Amino acid sequence: MKPVPDQTGRGVGLASAWDRALEAGEPPQFQSPWEARAFAMVVKLSEAGHFTWSEWVGFLSRSIAESGAKEATDGRRRSYGEQWIAAAESLLIAKGITSAEQLQARRLACWPINPGHAHSTPNPAGVNHVNRS
């Protein structure tokens, strides 16, 4: 998606279903619960002053562009939720709120040890369940 001016006064936004819902004053529709949690965390962190909405939009724009480049390489389309998570992680690391190592440790703590376990939700973090080293 290309950046387009939004009507919320936050500057440049992204014309996603999530953004269009917000601009219309409606709740966004999520494909799974983790997407809703990721969305809420970003909104709350911004409201708490950890970063500006303009900073967020910049990181999300880069995440979407990087996702397109990755898709061209590996053929796997990333959901908007996955792009949102990648942007949030990059922004939180850049702001010193967390580190890549802390995020990786949290990911590993959240996923089952059994590498044969069938996941009912996508793996937006890209955790390799077979090799946990």
How would you sum up this structure in a few lines?
The chain is mainly α and 133 residues long. The protein has helices at residues 17-23, 33-47, 53-74, 80-94, 100-110; strands at 3-5, 12-14. The chain has a domain at 33-110.
**How large is the share of residues in beta strands?**
under 5%
Order of helices and strands: EEHHHHH
> By helix and strand content, what is the structural category?
mainly alpha
Task: Please work out how many helical segments DSSP would assign.
Answer: 5
* Sheet with the most strands, sense and barrel status: 2 strands, antiparallel
Query: Order of strands across the widest beta sheet?
Result: 1-2
**Number of strand elements:** 2
Specify Rg, calculated over alpha carbons: 16 Å
pLDDT < 50 stretches: 1-15, 127-133
Distance between the termini: 36 Å
Instruction: Report the helical percentage.
Output: 40-55%
Instruction: Let me know the average pLDDT.
Output: 76
Structural shape: globular
Describe this structure in words.
With 133 residues, this protein is mostly helical. It has a two-stranded antiparallel ribbon. It has a domain at 33-110. Helix content is 53%, strand content 5%.
